[in-house]
Design brief:
With 265 residues, the chain is of the alpha+beta class. The protein has 8 helices and 8 strands. The chain has one domain (50-249). Helix 1 crosses helix 8 (236-264) and helix 6 (200-216) packs antiparallel against helix 7 (223-234).
Length: 265
């Protein structure tokens, strides 16, 4: 039976509130014209044509990529990552963010989290008999350096900087999936983009579920493994909402401390 990826369980009351706040915020930004700045003169509802850029082979190098494709590969973890967005210069471009202390996985400045953020996935993939590791970053953006769409690449710095961007980790229980199969799932999404309805949030949530579904389809899984994978899938929305709320609160606390220090330090 075909799975309807847009009507899955895992919704949470807090997630619903967060989405509602985000939509209201977009309504206000549409009215004030903030979402119509930059190269694309459009509102948050407008759909932008996009493309899929698979740069994994390019960043790994053709020789290494082909070697990994021939080896046994397992999907260890899916790291759900998040960074804040600028509401002016970088509203459609997560690479132009409001900088705060820290460095993101690709060397970009990290923005303070809010109710409207840029979400993306970093997949932890092990390969070969020695347990070598590669981190694959998958994201959807309305305005990367070239054009809107989905970008797949390799992130060599993730282990050094994950604490600044990782919202939570989805454990895949080291399920065997080939690299081409992983990349096919990451690219199996419309590259067209709209800030409200075809954005990074929909892409990351849907893609994380697709990957977990692929893990659950494997033969010989125990009842415990199936239950654990289902729990990971069913709690995605609630973990996004609670993780984001914690970050927003912590960011506010840090801002207050900074202002207090400047005023009375």
């Amino acid at each position: 039976m075909e799975v309807d990826w847009h009507k899955r369980s895992g919704k949470s009351h807090l997630d619903g509130i967060s989405r509602s706040l985000a939509r209201r915020g977009l309504d206000i930004l549409d009215i004030t014209g903030v979402t119509a700045v930059g190269e694309y003169k459009h509102s948050s509802r407008s759909l932008i044509e996009g493309v899929i850029r698979n740069r994994v082979e390019e960043t790994l190098g053709s020789s290494k990529y082909k070697k990994i494709c021939k080896k046994r590969t397992v999907l260890e973890n899916i790291h759900y990552c998040q960074s804040g967005l600028s509401f002016v210069d970088g509203f459609h471009n997560p690479h132009k963010v409001v900088p705060v202390p820290g460095v993101s996985t690709l060397g970009d400045a990290v923005a303070a989290p809010s109710f409207i953020n840029h979400d993306y996935l970093v997949l932890e993939v092990n390969y070969g008999s020695k347990g070598d590791k590669v981190f694959i970053r998958a994201e959807k953006s309305g305005h990367p350096p070239e054009k809107a769409g989905i970008i797949l690449t390799v992130d060599p710095k993730f282990e050094d900087t994950e604490e600044s961007v990782r919202l939570f980790t989805i454990q895949c229980l080291a399920k065997e999936i080939t690299l081409p199969e992983i990349l096919a799932i990451l690219a199996d999404h419309s590259p067209e983009y709209s800030l409200r309805d075809q954005n990074c949030w929909q892409y990351t949530r849907r893609t994380a579920r697709r990957l977990l579904h692929q893990c659950k389809e494997q033969q010989g899984l125990s009842a415990e493994e199936l239950t654990r994978l289902q729990v990971e899938e069913d709690t995605i929305e609630s973990r996004i909402a609670t993780g984001n709320m914690k970050r927003v609160v912590q960011s506010g606390k840090n801002g207050i401390k900074h202002l207090w220090s400047k005023a009375f330090g």
